[in-house]
Amino acid sequence: MSSSTSLLIRRARIILPDGEFMIGDVLTRDRFIVEVAPEIFTDQTAIREIDAEGLILLPGVIDPQVHFREPGLEHKEDLFTATCACAKGGVTSFLEMPNTRPLTTTQQALDDKLQRAQNKCLVNYGFFIGATAEILPDLLLANPTPGIKIFMGSMHGQLLVDQQEVLEAIFAKGKRLIAVHAEDQARINQRRQEFAGIHDVAVHSQIQDNQAALLATQQVLKLSEKYQRRLHILHMSTAEEAELLRQHKPSWVTAEVTPQHLFLNTSAYEKIGTLAQMNPPLRSPHDNEVLWQALHDGVIDFIATDHAPHTLEEKAQPYPNSPSGMPGVETSLPLMLTATAQGRCSVAQVVNWMSTAVAKAYGIPNKGAIAPGYDADLVLVDLQTYRPVLREEILSKCGWSPFEGWNLTGWPAYTIVGGEIVYEKGKLHTQVRGQALTFT
Ligand code: DOR
């Protein structure tokens, strides 16, 4: 890379690693931040400058749970369209889930994704390896990966791992992080029968109810304690699970929450129908409040979008044929920054929940802070202007958002990946490529 890719960001309101703000400049060179100071003097020529007066400079968002559908389901999304959406949303790195076709359960499938990502991704990437009941050897050996993904529920086929003996065997062997989609499949099956024939999508939250989530979370917490195994609870959705973790959370356990479970609840079914259907399902306003409090108190460690796009045509099928999942990478940062403007949390907390804490939990080196030596993955946001989420502006291939019409602030003005501008005031620089993440 030539030094001409150096970037000088001038007069930004920079959030520093201690959570304090400083008005000043940031200089990047060869993918890294080299200097952060009130004013930087450089004799470098051919340097790109951004006048960031009035904008806030944050470390880029690391989204630790997304479904980008490639390979195999590219009619919903692909790695290029998904990462265009990431660039617009200030997401500079992502961790992607194994329920693609073929499933990411082998080194070969992981290598294929990494190769595709190298060719197509505008931002940095990492891919989970999926657990199956067979426990393939690559589950322990595949590299690089942030960890093992287990679907305990709301999945069919090979990726469903709901038998205690299999779970036990996975937890017993190896050391790598295990990330769990915790819903109890036996309870879901039983309740599906009880509610059979109901096509009102609101029943989704009753079938896959709080108890289904709690049972599974209790089960994996026990396993994690028994084997002292690093556990991450994906998209925690209920007050009951938050209370369970509040009572007792081993130091090797982390948990995340989605913006959907913070900002939406079962009242969304009336407004947007099956577009509000996801797994685990939306809960009550009480659950929203308890999850917010758990985030504030560190019971929940960070935020993931669970970006799971489906086409409008697929979503238009009557429940239960409508697929579960919503897109999220374009709206997560503005949603959280709008919450700061409403006094629900601080910008420093949002940075921690959406970047610093994620880098720490997954052992991603050099990310999650604005300081010399860190990777130059940055986002400049505008906290002055409000703009609504508009369907016609959505870059995700699915072409919709559950937050359409929401008037948000904190939209990215610039997104920078490895020192290169990938998104600039509505324009994408589609030639920029991210890199494979590493995990320590
Ligand atoms: O709602 C969901 N959709 N939750 C998941 O865990 C999977 C996802 C998908 O892949 O569509």
Essential attributes:
binds (4S)-2,6-dioxohexahydropyrimidine-4-carboxylic acid; 6-stranded parallel sheet; 9-stranded mixed sheet; 2 domains; alpha/beta; Urease, subunit C, domain 1; 440 residues; 20 strands; TIM Barrel; single chain; 14 helices; globular; 30% helix
Notes on the protein architecture:
The chain has 2 domains: 6-58 and 371-388 and 406-428, Urease, subunit C, domain 1, CATH 2.30.40.10; 60-362, Alpha-Beta Barrel (TIM Barrel). The chain is 30% helix and 21% strand. It is built from 14 helices and 20 strands. It has helices spanning 79-89, 107-120, 138-141, 164-172, 185-194, 204-207, 210-227, 239-247, 259-263, 268-272, 285-296, 312-315, 332-341, 347-362, and strands at 7-15, 21-29, 32-37, 48-51, 56-59, 61-66, 91-96, 124-127, 129-130, 148-151, 178-181, 231-233, 253-257, 302-303, 378-382, 387-388, 407-408, 411-417, 420-424, 427-428. Strands 1, 2, 3, 4, 5, 15, 18, 19 and 20 form a 9-stranded mixed β-sheet that branches. Strands 9-10-11-12-13-14 form a 6-stranded parallel β-sheet. 53% of the residues are buried. Residues 67, 99, 181, 278-279, 306, 308, 323-325 line the site of (4S)-2,6-dioxohexahydropyrimidine-4-carboxylic acid (DOR). (4S)-2,6-dioxohexahydropyrimidine-4-carboxylic acid is lined by residues 67, 99, 181, 278-279, 306, 308, 323-325. Catalyzes the reversible cyclization of carbamoyl aspartate to dihydroorotate.
